[in-house]
Structure formats: C-alpha cells, structure tokens
Amino acid sequence: MTTADTTPLLRIGLLGTGPWARNTQAPALAAHPGVELSGVWGRRAEAAHALAAVHGTRAHTGEEGIDALLEASDAVAFALPPDVQAPLAVRAAEAGCHLLMDKPVATTVAGARAVAEAAEKASVASVVFCTLRFAPETSAWIAEQAAVGGWFTARAQWLGSLYAAGSASEYADSPWRREKGGLWDVGPHALSVLIPVLGDVEHLTAAAGPADTTHLILRHTSGASSTLTLGLSAPPGAAGVEIELRGERGTASVPGWAGAETAFRGAVDALAEAVRTGVPHACDARFGLHLTELLAAAEEQAQAG
Alpha-carbon distance 65 to 25, whole Å? Predict the structure, then answer.
C-alpha cells in the first residue's frame, strides 16, 4: 500500500449554501480525493438539504446543527458573508477545527483579529481563499516574480460589472458586496498578489472613484510603488482584470487562470499541508487580518474624501 492509500481523509464541513457554496466550494470538496465532505450547514433548511443531497452528505441547520457539523469535522470551509463568517470561525477554532475561510475574513479589524487570535490560541491551521494565491497558473507566476525581484512599480486594475445596468449575476444579490463594494470584494485578490511580490505596504492613500470604485496608491517595503483600481460597477465593456509589474527586467503580466473551483482545490491542498506539517501558510488568518487592516484604512480615507 502507498502512503496515499493509508492517509485518512480530511473531514471538511461546509458552512453556507449560496452561489459560491453551490458553484465552487461544495463541488471542489466533494471531488477532492483527500477530503470527505462531512456535512453542509445552512441558515435555510431547504437550501442545506438540497446542496447536501447533490453531494451525498448530511445537512445541518440551526444552532445545534453548527455544533453537530463541527463535531463531525476536522476542518470547516466557509461560504458566508464575512461578518457572519468571522464569529463562526472563532467558534470553529475553539472547537478544534481547522479553518478554510473566504476573503475578506471580516469587514472590521476587531472581527478579523478575533479570528486570528482564536486560531492561534487553538493551534489550528488556517487558509484564506484569495483566488490567485491558489490557482496553479497564478500562484506559480507570483512565486516566480517574487524570486526575480527588482520591481520598480506595479499596476492592478480589477473591475467587475456585477452592479452595472442589466447585470443578471446571482452574485449581485449579496447585500454585503453591495454595501462594501469592490474595495472589500476584489481588493483582497489584488493585494494578495502584490504584497508577496513587492513587500508589505508601508504607506497607503485611497480615493473614491465612480460608483463603488476605489483607487489606491501603495508604497511597499521593497521601495516599489503600486496603484490599484477596484470596483464592481464598471460597464461590461470596461470590466476586466489586469496586473502588471515593471522593473529592471522589463514587464510581467499576470496570466489567466482556470477558474474558482480549481483554485479552491489548491486552497484545500494548502490547508491539508498546513495541518500535516504544522507550518502556517502565508495566506493564513494572520494575513487575513492584515488585509482587513489595509482595507479598513483605505475605506476610511476614501470616505473622508
């Protein structure tokens, strides 16, 4: 028998039943060869039972359902609004469950700090799912550019048309996204690429643009600077993702990636490795807290105008 044959499956429960759970987390967890999808919890019983039935697992609802899912799981994955996710992540860590969280961890620094401190106190592994850090194509590109070094400046433009006129996306029904905008929804993705390549953020300036758009200017510890344009309300013809680095060796642009489900499988692998080795992943709850600190500072500046 090989090691893979005898390694027990990592039991991961899923908290959430919305579009991201249905389209990304649940399919990825159910198909992962090293994972047992140990159950699904949802605030709406009918949605929890429907999603659990599709993937051959057990549905849980209500407060007692959360406890039952945590007891049946080694780790939990979250597909919930950030400020619902944060207190449940604290609860899961206190129950001894490893954490696979969505970004942002929370929309308040206090909420994100509570998660990071709970994970540290309980000695549980944690991963925050910033898509480009785990998609094979982009994670390899980030590592390559960090190794190259010598970058002078960078530009990130992440514009969606989720709230453009005529949009029919099911993700547009998310109240927290509509309230917090592109800064909080796609900002973590852009920052999670730039920080490992250019270094941490030493100084941040933010200004509001049209609709929910936010513009950031960052100075990094490497000496490089970067600019970010983030939003969810661009006209469809203006939407798109571009991240470009410029430095001693010319320019480099982030490649395309296969999709969220493939990236989420990479995040599951990263969590499993952190559980196995005890070595924290770079994109863990502490990094999630730092992202929240940066986004909160940017939001305060942009609103002050």
Answer: 19
Residue type, 40: V
Predicted confidence at residue 5, as pLDDT, reads 57
- 118-to-57, 98, 122, 287 alpha-carbon distances in Å: 28, 11, 6, 14
- Written as six digits, the tokens of 291 are 């992202």
The mean of the pLDDT values for the chain is: 96
Angle 175-185/82-94 helices, nearest 10 degrees?
Answer: 80
The secondary structure element, H or E, covering residue 78 is strand 75-78
DSSP 254: P
Nearest 5°: CA angle at 76, between 93 and 129?
100
β partners of residue 206 = 216
Q: What dihedral angle (degrees, nearest 10) is formed by the CA atoms of 169, 170, 175, 176? A: -80
Q: How many residues does the chain have?
A: 305
- Contact (Cβ atoms closer than 8 angstroms) between residue 154 and residue 2: no
Q: Which residues face 75 on adjacent strands?
A: 12, 98
Low-confidence stretches of the chain (pLDDT beneath 70): 1-5
pLDDT in tens, 115-161: 999 999 999 999 999 999 999 999 999 999 999 999 999 999 999 99
Q: Which residues contact 166 (CB under 8 A, 6 or more apart)?
A: 236
What are residue 41's phi and psi, to 5 degrees? -115, 140
Tokens 């296969």 label which residue? 258
pLDDT at 4: 46
Give pTM, 2 decimals.
Answer: 0.95
Residue type, 164: A
Nearest CA among 67, 26, 61 for reference residue 44: 61
